Amino acid sequence: MRRELKKRDIYLKKLIAFQDTEPVKVVTGIRRSGKSSLLRLMAQHLENSGIKTDQIIEMNFESYTYRSMTSDSFYEYVKERIIPGKRMYLFFDELQRIHRWEEAVNAFRVDFDCDIYITGSNAYLLSSEYSTYLSGRSVEIKILPLSFVEFLYFHGLEVQEIQSALGGDKKLILDKDGNQYSLREAFDSYVSFGGMPGIADVGLDQEKAMILLDGIYSTVVVRDILERERREGVRQIADPILLRKIILFLADSIGSTISVSSIGNVLTDEGILERTGKTGTPSAHTVQAYLNALLESFFFYEIKRFDIKGKEYLRTLGKYYIADIGLRNYLLGFRNRDSGHAFENIVYLELLRRGYDVAIGKVGRAEIDFVATKTHEKLYIQVTQSMLSESVRERELAPLMNIRDNHEKIILSLEPGFDSSYEGIKSINLIDWLLTAE
To answer: Who contacts 63 (Cβ-Cβ below 8 Å, separation ≥6)?
Structure first.
């Protein structure tokens, strides 16, 4: 008996929008972020819409059942289950484990009347080899760990508005037993435990959460980085100690400007990397290969810098954000540290969820945390812990005030201060912003 699935409507709606269209639907994201559950939710939607269960073929290639399957036997397995004259719905989970899977998927597209949905935990799934077969015939749905709103829902917490004793409305969090918590308490839990859906199964217990996050970390590192390279015959990522050092460095440096050479120099000073060549500099190619593997496994995201006045992306010095803030706490320890960068990380992921393209903004010598763009929309966003200090207000406002266009400018913080805007720049409570559905 399958357990009841929690809804992920933001992603399910995207899949439903592409239902019965030609493109292969490709769901990507870090392991354990909910890709398998999303496929099952889509299958349930089809069943509830009147599609017969024998028209739905579901295969999870993490299962031992398919451990020795080749692309040929994969094709034959599906072919035997195709019902002539019926539209079939094919769901393939973690498909990258099948060598030359793309040939079989392309054959299904050509040979059968079918609608195809696949998942993968590595961006290699959408590499040039894949696109050769399905160029222009696939659509990517990028899934992320839980948003703050989803975190509350998964943990059985509900936001309720009550009338404050001082007048006006006040938001509280209620659990299923009627216990009350402040919004800040719930947010602090989110910042500590992160948004991996599995945390909801073990509860907000630090020891259990650490065990779950350790399992996620190990699976990503082994299956999506070390094993993946061996499977492709490329032995660049062969040193688990070096890989962990780079992961720890990036996790400790989220939101900070980083170059490949700066990572290499730190690792060389620690004796992890050897200096190479006549100049005695650490190998940039080695560091870049490890960074690429971490980006491809969706463990980290790289964000480029954009010159707002020059209107061009800059090639140097980007920043990295981790896929889940709970994973960062697992790696570095559950203690209070650089909360400003942690909040930045949360805002960055939320902007991605809301469909924005995101860059760092450069205006003169100053920097804007995020420039978020959609088709007909642009936001300039600064993130800080508090706006109560005059010096902080000046620091956060100055870069935004140097931008001369009319696009919306926002500062997100836990303590926005008494003024809701400063010369047209909005000061918004970060938690309220996270709770605002788009």
So the answer is: none
